[in-house]
């Protein structure tokens, strides 16, 4: 019975484990927007694999093709050999994602996780431009490998890992100065300052909505200004869509809202649709300057993930129904959160977000974790984010039903009330 009790994990697993500390139960099965623990208790999941489960747990439209593929002994591991599963994914991605949006990208499979995609994007930007420095943003999060950590603007996430490998200069993210300093003034001055060592950065890496940084949406005009600035200074624009892509903010890519076309895009988390490891780097054709084998890795191209990713695109991205429902559900959450902020005015709550990436920021940072703990007691899973963990973060599956969404929002309202009163 070891695997059914918590103690075995405490004895055998590294202290680095984290989420289980907030949710000290052993989960066993999951379907749609719910998980079930070994005691049969059900939890509504507004965490959704930190954005890796945009279509919920075990979505039936993906499960059947996966089972069929395994049943016929489809290739599972094939490094980056040509396989039917990969070919179908590439064509489906072109037909359902790129062409309808008039986007032209070549697709790289950099390895299984978001951090692999970020590493690859940083390396390519440096190779293509022949420059080394990178610009990142305050509060950014890009992953746990050393290159990705170097462009992560949160010293807590760096832990004891030490000196950044990549020379990265953090610039103020949108709204950093609450509108008191004109957009990009600081940025432009440093770029022109011969003494700042910033004169010729290779590129800029940005999230359109910072996820781990506390659900901070950049304004459309700020994103457009950033794209222009990149053009003007010959810097490549890398949009990290690992968390906000695949429909989290409504459209497939989070940058579509600004009408910009990044030079490089990183995608992971929900792209396989089934919680299977998969990542993409999208590269403008003219800068696809990789030589064969220059960025390799054993798990580039996980064929069962290609199968579920293809099924997910066909099921959810053949029309704009998911985008429209995500935007409507997002508005609904925003209204409910605004009511919570008004009803608990003494807590100084700020409502944040875009699409179905939403957050409540608390003036007293510790209240966010307390609300998450109170919600867990009521059977709702959520995590905190932000530099002080001051934001209660909500990322439900995009497929959450209206009733489940309301159930979760009621739990959040009750939990906030118990914590702030
Ligand atoms: N970029 C962003 C924006 C992320 O949110 C994350 C993960 N939270 C990553 C990169 C890293 O992805 P992974 O954990 O799959 O390496």
UniProtKB/TrEMBL annotation:
Q: Which GO terms describe its biological process?
A: ectoine biosynthetic process
Cofactor names: pyridoxal 5'-phosphate
Query: Which pathway?
Result: Amine and polyamine biosynthesis; ectoine biosynthesis; L-ectoine from L-aspartate 4-semialdehyde: step 1/3
Its EC number is 2.6.1.76
Gene Ontology MF terms: diaminobutyrate-2-oxoglutarate transaminase activity; diaminobutyrate-pyruvate transaminase activity; pyridoxal phosphate binding
Which InterPro entries did the record assign? Aminotrans_3 (IPR005814), Aminotrans_3_PPA_site (IPR049704), Dat (IPR004637), Ectoine_EctB (IPR012773), PyrdxlP-dep_Trfase (IPR015424), PyrdxlP-dep_Trfase_major (IPR015421), PyrdxlP-dep_Trfase_small (IPR015422)
Q: Which Pfam families match?
A: Aminotran_3
Its keywords, alphabetically, are: Aminotransferase, Pyridoxal phosphate, Transferase
Q: Which family does it belong to?
A: Belongs to the class-III pyridoxal-phosphate-dependent aminotransferase family.
Q: What name goes with this protein?
A: Diaminobutyrate--2-oxoglutarate transaminase
Q: Which organism is it from?
A: Pseudonocardia dioxanivorans (strain ATCC 55486 / DSM 44775 / JCM 13855 / CB1190)
């Amino acid at each position: 019975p070891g695997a059914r009790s918590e103690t075995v994990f405490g004895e055998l697993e590294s202290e680095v484990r984290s989420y289980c500390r907030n949710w000290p139960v052993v989960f066993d099965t999951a379907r749609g927007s719910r998980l079930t623990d070994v005691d049969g208790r059900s939890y509504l999941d507004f965490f959704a694999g930190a954005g890796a489960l945009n279509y919920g747990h075990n979505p039936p439209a993906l499960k059947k093709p996966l089972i069929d593929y395994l049943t016929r002994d489809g290739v599972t591991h094939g490094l980056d050999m040509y396989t039917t599963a990969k070919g179908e994914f590439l064509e489906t991605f072109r037909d359902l994602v790129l062409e309808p949006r008039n986007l032209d990208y070549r697709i790289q499979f950099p390895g299984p996780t978001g951090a692999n995609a970020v590493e690859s994007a940083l390396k390519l930007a440096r190779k293509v431009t022949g420059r080394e420095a990178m610009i990142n943003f305050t509060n950014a999060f890009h992953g746990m490998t050393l290159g990705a950590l170097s462009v992560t603007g949160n010293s807590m996430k760096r832990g004891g890992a030490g000196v950044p490998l990549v020379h990265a200069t953090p610039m103020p993210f949108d709204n950093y100065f609450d509108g008191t300093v004109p957009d990009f003034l600081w940025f432009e001055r440093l770029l022109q300052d011969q003494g700042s060592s910033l004169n010729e950065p290779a590129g800029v890496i940005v999230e359109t909505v910072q996820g781990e940084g506390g659900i901070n949406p950049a304004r459309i005009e700020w994103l457009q200004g950033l794209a222009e600035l990149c053009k003007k200074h010959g810097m490549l624009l890398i949009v990290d869509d690992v968390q906000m892509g695949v429909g989290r903010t409504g459209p497939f890519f989070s940058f579509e809202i600004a009408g910009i076309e990044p030079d490089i895009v990183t995608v992971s988390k929900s792209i396989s649709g089934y919680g299977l490891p998969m990542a993409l780097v999208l590269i403008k054709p003219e800068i696809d300057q990789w030589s064969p084998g220059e960025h390799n890795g054993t798990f580039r191209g996980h064929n069962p993930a290609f199968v579920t990713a293809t099924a997910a695109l066909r099921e959810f991205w053949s029309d704009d129904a998911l985008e429209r429902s995500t935007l409507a559900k997002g508005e609904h959450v925003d209204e409910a959160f605004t009511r919570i902020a008004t009803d608990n005015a003494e807590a100084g709550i700020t409502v944040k977000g875009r699409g179905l990436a939403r957050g409540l920021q608390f003036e007293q940072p510790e209240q966010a974790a307390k609300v998450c703990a109170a919600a867990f007691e009521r059977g709702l899973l959520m995590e905190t984010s932000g530099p002080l963990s001051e934001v209660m973060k909500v990322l439900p599956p995009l497929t959450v039903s209206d009733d489940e969404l309301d159930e979760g929002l009621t739990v959040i309202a009750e939990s906030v009330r118990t914590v702030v009163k």
